[in-house]
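quick one before i forget lol
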Amino acid sequence: MPGPVTPALIALLLPAAAFLVIGLVPPLRRSGRPAAWLSIACMAGALAAAMTAWRTMPDGPVRAVWPWLPGARGPLASIGVLVDVPSVAMLLLITLVALLVQVYSTCYLSNERGPALGRYYAVQSLFAFSMMGVVLAPTLLQLFVCWELVGVCSFLLIGFWYEKPEAARAALKAFWMTKAGDVGLLIGIVLLHRATGTFDLLELRQLATTNQVPLAGLSVITFCIYLGAMGKSAQFPLHVWLPDAMEGPTPVSALIHAATMVTAGVFLLARLSWLFALTPAVLTFVAWNGAFTALLAAVLACVQTDIKRVLAYSTVSQLGYMMAAIGAGFPEAGFFHLLTHGIFKALLFLGAGAVIHAVGSNDVRDMGRLARRMPQTTTVFLVGTLSLAGIPLFAGYYSKEQILGAVWSHGLTAPFAMLLASAFLTAFYMFRIIFLAFFGSPATALPADAGRSHDVSHTAGDPRHDRAHAHDAPFLMTGPLWVLAAIAMAIGVWLTIAAPHAEHEVPGWLAPSAIAAAVGGILLAWLTYQRGMVRADRLAGLFAPIRYAALRKFWLDDVYLAIYNRVLLAFAAVVGWVDRYIVDGVLNVVSAWTLEGGDGLRRMQTGKVQDYVFALGFGLLALMVWIGVGW
């Protein structure tokens, strides 16, 4: 078997083995911590295998497939792995973040009961297998199967605390919103197979590069595929599920809603960029919608007080950046930002978890002056924030600049302006968190249970008491934070000093403009929330209409709720009436006639021999008459 294939298969199957062992051995699953360490050991092995696959990676893609669905003219579909640079890079990201999240979770969820903890690690392992299945899939059919498994695992992990109504509703919301996009993805895959006769990605790419893919209806196909990516990667208008998904445990947010699942849509479009290149109108829509999503989510993040929801909207915004780059025709820039963003956003979510663990509240107004009591958490959170803001020497600077350059070079002036405005707002709302939570004074005296965290079951008591005794988390939580911070810094320094050559021409003024936007956002946050030279209430009043709409999420949830109540429920009522009174009515009438006819025929069976002889004679007489007339 070729060099990187074997380690890639090992990386893929180790989490699956952990899931099966934990799931099929009840004593292990109920034990909690032993199940956790088994999952962690398998994930460590998967990371080592992914690193081996990277070291043995040849210049071109390597594939190993086996027949799956037999057909008269050969297999209808096959299963296997497709190993190339993007898939192995994603393997490294998935296994690294999953390993660190699982180690972090042993302390963060230490108060969970054994069976719940075992269930958590079983689903975590299944999710890692499913996500790696998406990135290694050699065919669109296998990709779709693993894609759906990712959605199921997300549902289970968001609803991990299913006894809490908010978590249960958030899990259902995420499931149905992503499934709305998945319907489009399935339609697109079926239509593409009908047009080309294959699910195989390498064969499809060969057909696309040699202009053998029929162009008639191809825009519909690529748009349907984009709908699947829109749902998974939380693009407008299907983005509304991601902020509510923060009801799940914070480590889940770090893995699924920062580094892996939400990037699946971006990966899919980058993987199929050669197909989307044949439909420039769809690509333009992807770019515009990505830029709009980035700006919309940045505005929404500015009015949030829940630290996890700020990071959730930030994730939506950064996913918009990635989509804008792909839509501009530079998928490499979007994919590169996917990788860097996965590192520093996982760092930010885990850092937020450390703060929630210490304070017992998600609300930044219930924090304040944590820098002295939590110096390690403050340092790593600041590294993640500077990376997200796009400051030089930090991980997000180069990749964000490349996206801005890609969009500008493609002539998309308005999307470029939206992305630049998003860069300003990103720096503003992230440093608003920094100043409020770590350096400023507590802004409010909250009433009982206000702003209380649903994220840590062992956090009880008054939030102000918890804040006064806040301290850095144990090593099992701070260790993963320092690893991610070191990687983010190393990537940032390397890219700033020895930046690879860009695929497109970047004007000289672009980098200073991007830096100025980020510094301007930081300065405004400092003047408002640290120095007090700009009053926050006056700033809010200046943008009162936008703030009013943002606090209501621009009424998108209300629109979906109205569609559900007034359209879907009304349609269901009509279908129910037709089912009860038309379908069931026809069947009831036919069955009544059948019963009546059977009752009438039953009366002919008297049980008397003479009646049967008379009937037989009458029948013979009628037959003779019929024959005589016929002759």
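fyi The CA atoms of residues 541 and 547 lie 8 Å apart.
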